[in-house]
Amino acid sequence: MIEAAGLTKRYGNKTAVYNLSFRVRPGAVTGFLGPNGSGKSTTMRMILGLDNPTSGSVTIGGYPYRKLPNAPRQVGALLDAKAVHGGRSARNHLLSLAQLSGIPARRVDEVLGVVGLQDVARKRSMGFSLGMGQRLGIAAALLGDPQVLLFDEPVNGLDPEGILWVRNLMKALAAEGRTVFVSSHLMSEMALTADHLIVIGRGQLLADMSVQEFISANSADFARVRTPDTEPHLREKLTTALTEAGGHVLPEQDGALRVTGLPLPRISDLAHEADVRLWELSPHQASLEEAYMRMTQGAVDYRSTIDQKAGLQQPLPPGAQPPVPVAGQGQPGWYAPPPPQQGGQPFTMPTTPAELHGGAQAGAYGTAATAPAPGAQSPYAPQPTQADGQASHGPAPVPQDQAPTAAPPAPSTPPAPATPPAPQQAPTPAPASAPADPTEPEDAR
Asked: Which stretches of sequence are listed as region Disordered (predicted)?
């Protein structure tokens, strides 16, 4: 059993834990809850003798941790899964801990199998994922087969199968009569794992009771009642009857009624007496998360605010239109559109065999041309549009959303005989009267 009496810890002018008293009894999983900065990790460090309390005391089985004979055989803990030498393998890490505590080497292989790391036992821990590191930390806590176990966020980084395994492990250890003390921020998991709760806020004790007592003390149970949607007068008739009987009725957005102050059998009797048909009559009990949020809402140190973005928006240039909001932006499943088109050309999918198997390789947002063959025209230069091969600057590319679905077929005219270019012929300079296209790169002018 773990027992804290008047436990206080100060760091300079900051009080991390103040006058904290509680008991963690064997045979049950005790959850340790509290907001960030409430003093949970500091309390666990004082239990294990890593920090000295400013005042008060904490004992394990009636002794301070430092005075326990062969403490690693009696207390196992996981406070920081990263507290492992990265150059050591998982087996060597556990083997060194076993040798320091007089634990036989065969126990190392046993706990590696318990946590499922037997296949990576000889791999260096620096390559372990977060979940594998958590499993290695749990193996270290189980190494001495202790009667008292402390876990700080044991399911952090684990997959659903690993979370279920930890949950069953905690329950099995408690069923064997061990003392199991677990700190976690996952309320849904604590509701399924813990039998008893110790809740602190800003270093002070807020609650020390069972899970069911905690939920009942920090939430308001109510009954959900629904009448036929096609007969709204029945809802009004039932509301009047319930209010006259001493109930408190609140309408919900979907048309149902939330009733407090009356038990379900009484609500059913009143509806029968008022000749009101019911489509739904169900009890509602708050979850552990709702009860926890209600109790600790005044003990939260770090609160987020709405991002106002004040003074960060750039003024629009004269004549510019404000951006149109994208439909669905910010909602789950929304993805940003692709980046702007590359090379000033609209993105087109290859359709002809020459485009599919030609010298250009398809990229993410267009085609990335390979090095041009000798005498070939630059891919960025204006393309010939007439049969004689003369270059002409055509109209600007049509935007993709306005482009026709299919191009008209080209007239069947015999191609002009191609004349091979002279080798290494100097390019003919452009006539002075022809202005250069400002959109062309310099190497294509």
From this structure: 311-445
For 220-296, CATH gives 3.30.70.980
Helix (H) / strand (E) containing 296:
helix 288-296
Report pLDDT for 362: 42
What span, in angstroms and rounded, lies between the C-alpha atoms of 257 and 227?
9
Domain regions of the chain by residue span? 2-216, 220-296
CA distance 224 to 250: 10
- Which of 305, 308, 383, 401 lies closest to 346, judged by CA? 401
pLDDT of residue 344: 45
> Which residues have a Cβ under 8 Å from the Cβ of 302 and sit 6 or more positions away?
35, 36, 37
Write the pLDDT tens digit of every residue in 54-69.
999 999 999 999 999 8
Give the residues of the chain that fall short of pLDDT 70.
Answer: 323-445
Q: Does domain 2-216 have CATH number 1.10.150.910?
A: no
The pair of structure tokens assigned to 150 is 């402390």
**pTM attached to this predicted model:** 0.64
Angle between helices 106-115 and 130-142 (to 10 degrees): 140
